[in-house]
Design brief:
Radius of gyration: 21 Å
Low-confidence stretches: none
Order of helices and strands: EHHEHHEHEHHEHEEHEEHEHHEHEHHH
Distance between the termini: 8 Å
Largest sheet: 6 strands, parallel
Strand content: 15-25%
Helix content: 25-40%
Length: 357
């Protein structure tokens, strides 16, 4: 492939958002190794990102959004220098996709469009109701039509994109298995740890398993670790909240004996890319998941984790693993293999590079 120049248009600062870090940012080194160059342009600056999901700060948020639009105007004046424009989710958060239209129709640039959620479905944030009202959810359809290649995080998203283009590709969210390494058993502490990790927007799913945790903690001694950018609204005896920190994310996850990923069975959840389950399995942590969407392609029931739909199924699975540590060891042996073979950076370097062919 001849050397190329790529402009990455992304919502959040580089190195901050999981959707960016685990979908394309870890391929930047691969681009450089093959003689290509790239520029990253985020809509939000670091200061706006830090307060984005906090209540209040409306003037600072508004200022940050205005600055973001000026960044996009700057991008329009330099986009002619690039061979490809890689757009993750959207160029700007509000209104119609004006920048995408200009890049595709006026500058006639090749667009690689990437998304990892069912972003065409309204999903309001309690902290940003104004943004929710001003958002145009049909943007996704338009940008798909204007793009040369559409990179989708799971088959459900591919099915949606295929209604508007013939060039939709399954490009999964992946794990860098050289970074996600299991912790030696001898290094774990003595307490049994049930764990969950995720952003504030997915804390709502914990409500599905909270009654089970509250019931089991009356019988057994364990810690329920929740790793997130925001503390959960509930309290319970076993809860240990850990604020997400990039520097300690692996160490914090390594404390889990089992990892949970509850979901609702709806279209929004079907758009999820199973990242929590992938993190757990890469670290040889058995994953208990709702059998929704791509989760059933990542976890094999009874092999590297369990499917749990109803409360009783969550209770039975957690109880079984708490009482039988040998069973955990059996599941651990099968955990990492699926990640290495089908959901790792190494497995999908070619998949990513082929987006540009």
């Amino acid at each position: 492939m001849p050397s190329m120049k790529v402009l990455f248009i992304i919502p959040y600062p580089e190195g901050t958002a999981p959707s960016q870090r685990f979908r394309f940012e870890h391929y930047f080194k691969e681009l450089e190794a093959q003689g290509h160059s790239y520029t990253v342009s985020s809509f939000m600056g670091p200061n706006t990102w830090r307060i984005l999901y906090q209540p209040g700060h409306n003037l600072l948020k508004a200022s940050g959004i205005i600055k973001g639009y000026f960044r996009r105007l700057r991008d329009l004046f330099r986009v002619h220098k690039y061979d490809y424009v890689f757009i993750h989710r959207e160029a700007s958060p509000l209104g119609p996709p004006v920048f995408e239209w200009m890049i595709a129709r006026l500058w006639k640039k090749k667009i690689i469009y990437d998304f990892d959620d069912a972003i065409w479905i309204p999903n309001a944030s309690e902290h940003n109701p104004i943004v929710y009202r001003l958002k145009r959810y049909k943007n996704t359809e338009d940008i798909i039509r204007w793009s040369d290649t559409v990179s989708c995080g799971n088959p459900f998203l591919v099915d949606f994109a295929s209604g508007f283009t013939k060039h939709a590709v399954f490009n999964p969210t992946v794990i860098d298995t050289s970074y996600y390494l299991p912790k030696p058993a001898s290094a774990k502490n003595g307490k049994f740890v049930i764990g969950w990790t995720g952003s504030h927007s997915t804390l709502q799913y914990l409500n599905r398993i909270l009654p089970v945790i509250q019931k089991l903690e009356k019988e057994f001694e364990f810690e329920f670790h929740v790793i997130s950018d925001k503390a959960p609204s509930f309290t319970t005896k076993s809860l240990v909240y850990k604020k997400w920190n990039k520097a300690t994310e692996i160490t914090d996850l390594q404390q889990f004996d089992i990892g949970l990923m509850p979901l609702t069975n709806d279209k929004w959840a079907k758009g999820k890319c199973g990242f929590k389950a992938l993190q757990y399995l890469a670290l040889e942590i058995p994953a208990l998941v709702s059998p929704v969407g791509i989760n059933t392609s990542i976890v094999t029931d009874g092999m590297n984790g369990y499917y749990c739909s109803e409360e009783i199924e969550w209770e039975v699975a957690i109880r079984k693993l708490y009482l039988d540590k040998n069973l955990i060891n059996v599941l651990k042996k099968n955990a990492r293999k699926i990640v290495e073979e089908k959901f790792s950076v190494n497995a999908h370097r070619k998949t990513f590079m082929q987006l540009f062919r």
